[in-house]
Amino acid sequence: MFAISLGDGAELRPLEPWQAEEFLAHMDRGREYIGRYVGLPDAAADLDSARSWLQSYADKAAADTGRLYGIWLDGLLVGGVLFRVFNASAGTCEAGCWLEPAAAGRGLVTRATRVIIDWAVRERGMHRVEWHVSSQNTPSINVAKRLGMSRDGVLREDFLYRGVRQDTEIWSVLAPEWRSLPAGGAGTS
Ligand SMILES: CC(C)(COP(=O)(O)OP(=O)(O)OC[C@H]1O[C@@H](n2cnc3c(N)ncnc32)[C@H](O)[C@@H]1OP(=O)(O)O)[C@@H](O)C(=O)NCCC(=O)NCCS
Questions:
Q1: pLDDT tens for each residue of 53-88
Q2: Ligand 1 binding pocket, CB closer than 6 Å
Q3: What's the number of domains the chain is made of?
Q4: What CATH number is given to the structural domain containing 76?
Q5: For every residue of the chain, which 3-state class applies, written as one string?
Q6: Span 132-179, pLDDT tens digits
Q7: Residue 19 pLDDT > 90, yes or no?
Q8: Which of 21, 49, 171, 187 is the residue whose CA sits 20 to 30 A from 153?
Q9: Range of the domain at 46
Q10: Given a cut of 90, is residue 17 above it in pLDDT?
Q11: Average pLDDT over residues 16-27
């Protein structure tokens, strides 16, 4: 399997439809924690929907409109990073992430997201990488800060989730900013 080491026994690998059972088991371990602000657990409620969600990203990858990668820690799938939106002609994309709770607090998502942003900026010529996050989601906002992103603004009450309207903050990093970060954005913690 193609894999990029994230250190400390963690690896970043493609996450594909054939891994639906493994993905569902991971989602079941983290369903409540992952679903506090994002609907991913609802999109992967059972084996069929988990496989469909993975297939939707396989389709995006084939069309070059999105990407999905899993994070494995000591051989166990514990989370992932993705490009929900990837518009190569416009030079813009939106990254996202999740972890099951046992894998949080180790810097895995920060390191994994650096890998995919670096690829998007350096190999794919992306100019702007966005991060959309609920204003209540402090851990994810902290990831955006660690990545060197700036807060562009807030979409007030734009996201209705589980009966509550959330504010969505938009964070971003531009290619020249990314390249000027220590180690080109790839080496800081
Ligand atoms: C968002 C989410 C992935 C953040 O998880 P996280 O573990 O805090 O993020 P990281 O993997 O980057 O780890 C950072 C933490 O590890 C610590 N850490 C340890 N070693 C580290 C290292 N080498 N590099 C960076 N951070 C490190 C950091 O200090 C930080 O902990 P702190 O917040 O207590 O200070 C997690 O909260 C989550 O899955 N939430 C549910 C899904 C979700 O909301 N996704 C985001 C949608 S926008």
A1: 999 999 999 999 999 999 999 999 999 999 999 999
A2: 33-34, 37-38, 96-99, 104-110, 133, 137, 139-140, 142-143, 146, 189
A3: 1
A4: 3.40.630.30
A5: CCCEEEECCEEEEECCHHHHHHHHHHHHHHHHHHCCCCCHHHHCCCHHHHHHHHHHHHHHHHHCCCEEEEEEECCEEEEEEEEEEEECCCCEEEEEEEECHHHCCCCHHHHHHHHHHHHHHHHCCCCEEEEEEECCCHHHHHHHHHCCCEEEEEEEEEEEECCEEEEEEEEEEEHHHHHHCHHHHCCCC
A6: 999 999 999 999 999 999 999 999 999 999 999 999 999 999 999 999
A7: yes
A8: 187
A9: 4-185
A10: yes
A11: 98
pLDDT at 121: 98
The Å distance, Cα 73 to ligand 1 centre, comes to 14
Interval between CA 167 and ligand 1 midpoint (Å): 21
Burial of 116 per CB tally in 10 Å (0-12, 13-18, 19+): buried
Which residue's CA is minimally distant from atom 5 of ligand 1?
Answer: 104
